[in-house]
Structure formats: structure tokens, C-alpha cells
Amino acid sequence: MDQTVKPLRIPPQMSVYTDKHNIFHLLQSMLSSLVIDQPEDPICYLVSLLQRSSVDIPRVLLLGPPAVGKHSLARKLSAELRAVHVTTGTLLQDQSELSAQARQYTLTEQELPAELLVRLIQQRLDEVDCFNRGWVLEGIPQTRLQALSLQQAGVIPEHVVMLEAPEDVLLERSQGKLVDPLTGDVYHQTFIWPVDDTVAQRLEGAQSRSETQRLAELQRYRCEVTGLSSVYQHVLKIINGDQPHADVYKQVLAFIRTRRRSRTPRILLLGPPGSGKSHQARLLSEKYKMVDVCCGQLLRSVASEGSALGVEIQPYLDDGRPVPDTLVLQVLEERLSRVDCISRGWILHGFPFDVQQAKSLQESPHQPNRVFFLELTDDVCLERITLRATDPVSGERFHTVTRPAPSSEVQNRLTIRPEDSTHIVTHSLSQYRTHTAALQSVYPDAVHIAGQDLHSVFEALESRLTD
User: Fold this and answer.
1) What's the whole-number mean pLDDT along residues 279-297?
2) Residue 233: which residues within 8 A CB-CB, separation 6 or more?
3) Which residue pairs from 276-282 have beta carbons closer than 8 angstroms and sit at least 24 positions apart in sequence?
4) ω into residue 42 within 30 of 0, thus cis?
5) Which of 60, 90, 232, 250 has the most CB atoms at less than 10 Å from its CB?
6) Which own/partner pairs from 317-320 qualify as long-range (CB within 8 Å, at least 24 positions apart)?
7) For the chain, how big is the Rg over CA atoms in Å?
8) Could you give phi then psi for residue 221, rounded to 5 degrees?
9) Taking the CA of residue 238 as centre, how many other CA atoms within 13 Å lie in the half-sphere pointing to its CB?
10) Is the separation of the CB atoms in 351 and 336 below 8 Å?
């Protein structure tokens, strides 16, 4: 019996199709709505969901400590998304019996019971405008108990934004708050000033609380923030609110708009030799279980297997000549079609080198959905590569500056690979620079990341995995 098991291959067109039509998001959204609402006729219910394009309706929570800027952001965000802006204040203004009950608590400065708050929110979000247009819920929930109660009631946000800022910044902001009496928009003497002079002239000072009250509110939030984060960890984005208002808004909007993209990343790492592509690919692969596809290693692996394709590739590797693009693409086609790449995603580096290779990859079924250029100067690249050497006994790699050999004995037996010589590295860098502009034209939406600090590069890559 033949014990050879061929790796399972999945038509790559499947992942391209699911990306193009947001299939995974569509199925998840429909299934979530179905089990929450539990309609008597599931088929008719699902048809109605598709007809009103419910999967594109925003469901957003905007959380954060007092004075971090939630109100201004929520108003602007709801206007941009054409969603309903819901606050505790708007819930209490309703003329329903539930709202009347809730107002009794506020008149006596008592905290609303979680059950009553949840019923109020449910009532509001079930109304036609929220149902059809979606909602931005500002400053709610405030506690872990409220968050869990909302989940049990079927109020499931798609995106949760949590703003954060240092305590001194929050206290300063709370002292200079101004309100437009006509629109209710909130401004600040230092942080947010209206562009329109007419608006600036009619601003009024906001109702100010004592510093003791502000500190108490801030302390209550600090006690609850960890619990809130744990409830929404899978849909949560924490954003630094101590930035210009426009920058914070841009980050919030980008998060909400880009989370709907493919959950299965197909990442292409580009950059000059020594920019850290292999290192970053290994870190991403270890943490997120994506498949690390180094083109050079892949070609050597196929050649060593002795297959018909490997036999064709071996002479090029032996002579140090570039492997023809047709053969490289065949190898990549086979590897990227395997079930692990399709299901877990992949990180490709070491290909493409020029514009023709990039176009061939774009025309194949294996188009990357995230492209990163790691930027580094030639001097730093040369230092990283030419000062490294390998211990032939242990196989460990050392570097004269960043990771010197542990002893003189190890140092004396280190060997330098021929391809790491200054002459060859300089030539490789020159070739990369020649093709850089053309490569960038193939990937105009690529993200460019300064590659000087390896830790910062990894953080930048991580932050963009959901883009």
C-alpha cells in the first residue's frame, strides 16, 4: 500500500472569492443575528437580513474615561456612518415608561440598575432607525456587569473602541470644556477649537464638576476598565486619546471600516537585504500561526526532494543563477494552495524582486491582501549582514555588534557565508534600489514601515493585521 500522502490542495480561487464578497463576515453576521433573535421562520428572517444589507450596518461602542473626547468623536462618527448616536442622555429623554422610571433614579442621583439600563438600550436599538442604520453607543456600558448583561440581551457590538489618556491630560481637558448651545457639540479652549468664528462666539462654558468629583469618576472608570476590556477583547481597539482630535478620529474610523476585510491574511513582506523580513515573518508565524513562506528556502526544499520540478531547479541553485520565474511560480502555486496556507494565511518574503515578478504574482490566484515595505538605509543593511557569522558546530548565528560570540573559542571558529560579503551585499542592495519604485507602483496601497528597530517593526505589523 502506498504510504505517501500528498498535501491537500484547495483551489486558491476560493479564498479570492471569499475576500471579494466578504463571505466569512457575511456568514458570521447572519448566524449571530439568527441565534440572538431566534425567529420563528429562520429562512424568511435570513432573506430579510440580506435584502436590507444588515451586514453593513455599524454596531459600535465608544468607551473611555471622562473628558477623553468620546462625545465629540461619537457625534462625528455617527454622522460619517449615518448611524444613530445613542447616549445615556438621549435614552433618558425618551417619553416611554422605561425612560420615566430611569429619570427617577437620576433625579435622586442614584445609579441606574443594570437591568433597567439594558432594557432601555434594547428598546432604543430595536427602533426602526437603529435597526436600519446601525448605532454608535457612547460611554455605555460603564461596568463589566452592564457589558455582560447587554451580551445576554443580544446587544453585540461589531467594533469596540476604547480611548485612553494620562490622568493629568484628562483633568486639564475637563476644566476647559465648552459647548455650542445650538448643536450640543463639545469644544475645548486648547484641544478642540471650532474653525467657524460664528460658532466660537456663541460657545458657553460646560457645567463644571469639582476636582474631587472628577477624580472619583476617573477612579471608578479605572476600576472597571480591565473588566470591560476582557468582555470585548475580540472586537476591541485601544487608541491613545492624547493626540490631535483629527488623528484620533482617523484611527477610529479606519478601525471600523477595515475590520470587515478578510480574516485570513495573505501578507507580502518587501524590503532590501538585511531589513529583517525573515525575522518578522518568523515572529508573525510563531504568534499568529500563519505559514512562513521564504521563497529561497522553499526552492531549496523542493530541489532536495528530487521531484521532476526539483530536478529542473537544482542546476540553477548549484550554479548560483536565478531560478526562472515560471519555475518559481509553479513552486509557489503548489505551496500556497495547501490547506494550511488557505486556512491559516501566509507570509511571503524573498519574492518578488522586480516588477515583472510582482505582476505575475498579482495575476495569479495568490494575490496578497496586505503588502508591507520595510524601509532601511544601505549602511544599516550592510552592517546587519556583513558583521554576522555562523557557528558551524551549533548552527547558531552571531553578530559582531548586536550578538557577539559568547567566548573566544566560538569566535575563532565562526564562518561567514560567501553571500554575506560586502561586495555581494552591496550589489544586491543596488539591484533592490533599482526595482523599488517599480515595485511600489504595483502595490500603491502598501504600508511603509521604518525597519530600524525590530521590536517597533513587529508592533507596526501587528497593528495592521486587521487592515
Assistant:
1) 93
2) none
3) 276/374, 276/376, 276/384, 276/451, 276/454, 276/457, 277/349, 277/350, 277/374, 278/349, 279/454, 280/374, 280/454, 280/457, 280/458, 280/461, 281/347, 281/349
4) no
5) 60
6) none
7) 28
8) -65, -45
9) 11
10) no
Q: What is the largest CA-CA distance in the chain?
A: 88
Place of cell 491630560: 169
Which ranges of 83-202 would DSSP assign to H, the alpha helix? 88-93, 97-107, 114-125, 128-133, 144-152, 167-175, 197-201
Q: Could you identify the residue written with the cell 557565508? A: 417
Global pTM value: 0.55
Is the pLDDT at 54 greater than 50, yes or no?
Answer: no
| Residue 136: strand pairing partners | 60, 85
Look up residue 32 and give its three cell numbers: 449571530
The single-letter DSSP state of residue 56 is G
Q: CB count, 10 Å around CB of 294?
A: 19
- Residue 65, Ramachandran bin (φ over 0: left; ψ between -120 and 50: alpha; else beta): beta
Rounded Cα distance between 151 and 307, Å, is 55
Q: Burial-class residue 305 by CB neighbours within 10 Å (0-12, 13-18, 19+).
A: exposed
The answer to whether residues 270 and 358 touch, using CB atoms and an 8 Å cutoff, is: no
Residue holding cell 508591507?
372
pLDDT tens figures, 126-144: 888 888 888 999 999 999 9
How far apart are the C-alpha atoms of 31 and 82, rounded to whole Å?
24
Q: What single-letter amino acid sits at 425?
A: V
Q: Is the pLDDT reported for residue 160 higher than 90?
A: yes
Instruction: List phi, psi (to 5°) of 89.
Output: -60, -45
Given CA atoms 164, 168, 172, 175 in this order, what sign does their dihedral have?
Answer: positive
